[in-house]
Every structure is written in structure tokens, then in C-alpha cells.
Amino acid sequence: MHIRYDDRFGLYGLMAEFESPEALLSATQRAYAEGYRRMDAYTPFPVDGLAEALGSRWTLASPMILAGGIAGALGGYLLMWWITVIAYPLNVAGRPLYSWTAYIVPTFEMTVLLASFAAVFGVVIGLNGLPEPYHPVFNVPRFSLASQDRFFLCIEARDPRFHLDRTRQFLQDLGPVEVSEVEK
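^ thats the sequence. predicted structure below, dont judge the formating
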């Protein structure tokens, strides 16, 4: 019988510690090839090719920012039109009430403003789940080295291929310094 190690057992996953970025990159590629998809890597500096090795995928960030920009452009343009034509029409020197060239700068500014809000609130809060003041990986005593000189690969327990013993053996076969359990 296959036992799932999830919320019932308080296990977040297994974490392997490596001494070099090359070892981490190789281990990540092997883990992805083995079928693990719910994993993350932690490094003290960016490692070229690591995002691809983790299987980075398309996200909703770009469409969210585009929608924010379009909403800002439409909102800014319609607001300027409403103000100058409907709410406060001023006939200055016989010019027409509707003059689209005067709307360009406010429309651009609203586009940038709402696209920025969509980026910050949509991506940071919506897609990344921030603010998250605590993450289970901080339960691993040696994880503090992730900001200094060590490289970590964590396979989450919610991965469909995760089995405590088999995943631990797989990580041990990758040649890490240490394999640790990550408690929730």
C-alpha cells in the first residue's frame, strides 16, 4: 500500500544539500527526468539553467499585467472624455469639447499605474502567496547556508511521485552532502 506523506504527517518534503552549483543543476535535471515536478532549489546566487531544469512554466503574470494596462488605458481615456465632454464641458475659444490629443498623457499614466498595480498585487500576493513570513524549509538547521555557500534541492511531499523511502534513496544517489526531512 502506498502511503502519501502529506499534511497528515506534517512532512513538507526532503531536502538535499550540495556543495556546488554544477552538482545542484545536475541533480535537478535528474530529478526532473525521474518525474518529480513539485520541487524547488535554493542558492546563494543565480545559477544559469536552473529555472529550466526545474521545469519553469508559463504563468498568469503576463496576462494579468496586460489586463491591468488595458483597463488603465480604457479607464484613463474614458475618464478624460467624461470630464471634458459630459461632466464639466468648457467651451474655450470655440474649440471642440472632445480633443483626443489632450488625453494621451493621462491615458498613458493610467496604463502604467494600473499595469504596475496588477504586477505588484497580482504577482506578489496572488501568484506567489506573499507575504509568507515563514516557510517550512527554515526548519532544516543547515538551510542557513543557502545564503552563503551551499545549494539545496527540496522535493515536496505533495509531489505525485514522492514516497519517503524511495525519494530519500533517490536523493542519496545524487551524491549530496546531506539529505534532511523538512517538517511543516
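Residues 61-87 form the longest helix (27 residues).
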